[in-house]
């Protein structure tokens, strides 16, 4: 007699706040923050408000770090809260001490350690295929190896500067690896990314309040080390707004990221309530980018919309066990948005109107790109440059020893920074390897058009291109900023991770993509 064993389905791990580990870690972090608030009030008798803010921040960070040691995915989820709050905390503390921004590095380091030493928590959906190994990881690791070698450049006055430069370039790259293995189910990925997109609504509300009642806002939403106004070509001035972030440039880049998320998520069939919230989030992201005062922010939002037009060809979605279904279109919502935007533009006058029209003026963009390329001659570094960390803010590590930073912080254009640090040879190596990795990511983003996350993978690739262009051709080194570094490498990892999820859902196309 043959005995038949019934196969039990694998238990589905709870997602989001229903995940017991995340709920426990969040509860512990909030409890630690409350305890830190009380201790801070009693510790800082002269300024109890400041003490409570510092105590809450330190308490939450300790709780989140403990959660990260138990499960690195929990740590990354709590990292979102830390990234959203650290800049506001810095603005609340007199002098905006840079050491506060090291909090996220501590939490990220805890995630790295958990990922490395708890292998049972990092089992991937599948191993990296040839496209990921040779088309994406190889050129990136080759460039990172060159950066490490340049830390030994004899032109550097101190090896600590080279080590600090290595930290700037390499610290957040493992986020790409972690995020490629972050999601275990389609629902978990959709819920998490949708929540990130919804954050555009409260961010816009704060930005709008800053723009209208800046002087009445509390210190943690008002104080900033950045210039408060932008001078227009006519001589007029428009206020910069940074919302909860350190600078308006960071706000503008986050808005571009959220807009790309919204576009990709809207191309997936979903409930009416979710679609309405996503449309509102997209509109809020665009309006926040404009109110930031950063000319490039609104322009990059427009470029993101235009470069997402190929999504028109992504007409169908295939779900296992169901016939192909038609993807929702974006035409009606786009037309409504254009009409609403036209009304708002028509109501603009004076400096605000000039700020808008100059934001989308092609000649100004061309001028910026020409300047970025030409400025490399002003900061020439010879064949091999002045070494890793010789440009930008990496040299500030010397202030810990009571010395001045020897790094050239006037090198802000990305093209000039690469030329000054790594020389002509490094510039060509970076260009070749950068394009190699970018096209590898594009291949991973555009495979399997009928897969559920195909549109989202494409829009994330658009964002990566936008941030890389911003780094190279705009006078603000966004890849030197910790928050932007996390966002950049996480977006690259999401493309890989969402592709793996799509292949698990559609095993029939997995072999095709693996052979590509």
Order of helices and strands: HHHHHHHHHEEHHHEEHHHHHHH
Give the helix level as a range of percent. Answer: 55-70%
| Number of distinct beta strands | 4
| Overall number of domains | 3
**Shape assignment:** globular
Query: Radius of gyration, Cα only, in angstroms?
Result: 24 Å
Which percent range describes the beta-strand content? under 5%
Low-confidence residue ranges: 1-12, 510-516
Query: Count the helices. How many?
Result: 19
* Residue-averaged pLDDT: 80
Query: Which strands sit side by side, in order, in the main sheet?
Result: 1-2
Structural class: mainly alpha
Biggest sheet, open or closed, and with what strands and sense? 2 strands, antiparallel
Distance between the termini: 47 Å
For this entry, give a set of tags.
disordered C terminus; mainly alpha; single chain; two-stranded antiparallel ribbon
Describe the structure.
With 516 residues, the chain is mainly α. It folds into three domains: 109 residues, no CATH class; 206 residues, no CATH class; 176 residues, no CATH class. Helices cover 64% and strands 2% of the residues. It is built from 19 helices and four strands. The strands form two sheets. Strands 1-2 form a two-stranded antiparallel ribbon. Strand 3 and strand 4 form a beta hairpin. Helix 7 runs parallel beside helix 18, helix 10 runs parallel beside helix 12 and helix 12 crosses helix 14. It starts with 19 loop residues before the first helix and ends with a helix.
